[in-house]
Amino acid sequence: MHGCTFSDNYADEGGAVYSSADSIYQGSVEIHGCTFSGNYAVKGGGAVCSIGGSAEMHGCTFSGNYAAGTGGGAVYSTEDSVEMHNCMFSQNHANGTGGGAVSSNKGSVEMHGCTFSGNYASTGNGGVLNSNHGLVWFEQSIMVGNRVKFGGGGSIYLLGGHLHTGFGVIFENNNAKKGSGGALQCGDEAFVQLNNTRIQYNEAEQGAGIHIGHCSVELINGGYIYKNVATNQVSAQLA
User: Fold this and answer.
1) Which among 122, 129, 182 is positioned nearest to 157, based on CA atoms?
2) Which residues form a coiled coil (predicted)?
3) For the chain, which end, N or C, has fewer CB atoms within 10 Å of the first or last residue's CB respectively?
């Protein structure tokens, strides 16, 4: 798909696009320069749902999409490989398990040069991304002003699996005001490696920068954890 616009569509899964692999079809989808706005899914993936295959998105814009059930306000994937390059995600909203912009279950997610702003998980975790036992890679990407209402991880919630950031990743002004991890929360023996990453001006009830719960976090090549605020006045940066 190239240069398409998907607006105000409705489906059970994948409000605009649904792809699923089986024994014959590999379930591969490539999307270039497309705009997704105001799409709605009853379950997962307000705009795009990809199951068991692979999805690549280049130069796409996702705004105001909504997933009411299993999460992923813009994109939902299960046992799938997802790559996003130079995409913009704004004001997407998820209910259910969370992932205001993206929800990934036992798959891999790579994001290069992407911007996430104003995405929201009203229930569940991860204002930007909710990852369940998968592999996540961010590079040259910015997450600003994303939030969760009750859960953890104003930007990212990682349950098991691995998260690696390359250079140029910024978490700023994200919040989990009634939960933990203003920028990031991890658990269930997850491993997080933050490479020269900036985490600043985030807010949460505890662990305003990062909430570490039964997981390992490694900071390498500098980085910047600055002026994050814990509303319970404990563990302002890490918890």
Assistant:
1) 129
2) none
3) N
